Amino acid sequence: MAAQARFEPRFTLVIVYFFVCLMVWGLLLAAPEMLEAWGELPPNADPAEAGREVVRDALRGRMFTAGLAAVVSMGALIWLDVLPGLRRKPGGGSRASSR
Question: What is the pTM of this model?
Answer without folding.
Answer: 0.73
